[in-house]
């Protein structure tokens, strides 16, 4: 379901322990309407489930975010200007100029005219 690049796997493994999970959710926001959010957590919350366990990297999410995770690819870039994790989904219909928010084809938008991501 979620594809992690080798760079993303390496960074996640350096920053997590065997007890940790990576929580990935979709929330309203940004210029295009939706944003991915990720956090390292120690517990699964009510309403969340294990999406995948690959190479010791355990990804969890809530049921509302699951449809938006199909086709998700996560990479990590250490370039000088915009270092960090990059979320790319092959189903993106549009995204804002900086790539921080997106709209997926065939999915309803959470909000229209969301909070700007600053691009």
Keywords:
mainly beta; Hypothetical Protein Aq_1857, Chain: A; four-stranded mixed sheet; three-stranded mixed sheet; globular
Mean pLDDT: 78
CATH topology: Hypothetical Protein Aq_1857, Chain: A
CATH class: Mainly Beta
Major sheet = 4 strands, mixed
Query: Structural class, from helix and strand content?
Result: mainly beta
The CATH homologous superfamily is termed HesB-like domain
| Domain module tally | 1
Question: Compute the gyration radius: what is it?
Answer: 14 Å
Count of distinct strands: 9
The number of helical segments is: 2
Low-confidence region ranges: 97-102, 104-117
Strand content: 35-45%
CATH architecture: Sandwich
Which series of helices and strands comes N to C?
A: EHEEEEHEEEE
- What is the global morphology? globular
Distance between the termini: 29 Å
Q: Could you please describe the fold and organization of this structure?
A:
The chain is 12% helix and 45% strand. With 119 residues, it is mainly beta. It has a single domain, classed as Hypothetical Protein Aq_1857, Chain: A (Sandwich), CATH 2.60.300. The protein has a four-stranded mixed β-sheet with strand order 3-2-5-4. It has a three-stranded mixed β-sheet with strand order 1-6-7. Strands 8-9 form a two-stranded antiparallel ribbon. The chain is globular, with a radius of gyration of 14 Å. The chain starts with a strand and ends in a 15-residue tail after the last strand. The model is unreliable at 97-102 and 104-117 (pLDDT under 50).
